[in-house]
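Quick one: structure tokens for this chain, please?
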Amino acid sequence: MIAQDKCFDCLQKQVENLCLVLKPHNASSITQQIKDKLAQKAAQSRTLAPPQIAIEIYQCVEQNLGISDPFIHIKQESMVRAHSICENLLVSYPAPVLERTSSGKWSVDSMRRRLDWAIRVAILGNVIDYGSQSAFSFENADFGFEEMIFGDFCLDALIDKLECAKILLYLADNAGENIFDEVLISSLKEIYPQLQIYYALRGKPIINDLTLEDMRHPLAKGIGHYCTLIDSGVQSPGFVYADACERAQKLYDEADVILSKGMGNFECLQSHKDERLFMLFKVKCDVVAAFCGVEKGTMMLKHNVK
């Protein structure tokens, strides 16, 4: 998805929001430098997705701040807050019980109910995002489970793919979302115990996206019981195959199912039409809303075949 004019405005606003949070002494200098860089990028040939442009923007921010991971404390707090929210959510909306048939297999209906529930929980986690134009706060975020409005919800197509899948690649997104992702991944592993699941993280810190180092947090370790954590090598807040390390590329090529979490991954992968690729995200901006033909705030389980 090629960056549009509004995408450059969004990146500028992201940096301004970060400066409001961190309050660096050189905030005005940082925002002006970013404004100049974005103007230069906007005047050039438009070939990159917004997350690819974000790499240079946040490198500039890091250099000015003298900090390699400006969001480290925000990410740690997000884990704690997300854990509390998810715990309360699971009390109010517990996992549907899996039931076995006389043959010992999971019943189709109970399996479908569990996956429907787990996918909704995982997508709800995508509410967390410090990389959107609107300043995010847990206090003002809407984690209402019953209030979720979906555009695409391609559950049947996903189940069809999962039935014979051996390898699943899950492209992670923001810190805190992993708590919600664990609900889906643990359900997938319970229903499909033969499934090898890989959870791909960013290659270096950028915005509040998850890295392998972030997964050392005590509240993040549980997900490792159900999947293998890998460093994708990708430095942008969206998965770019060409920038991924050899191992991540190999897993992408060999995966029977790919779950892409978040809008950044969507922006980078939507042009890759692939029957293995399913995208889970909340629509957070007007550009993506118009592209998908839905209202901003809509939740999506999109099968990226058309």
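The chain has ten helices and seven strands.
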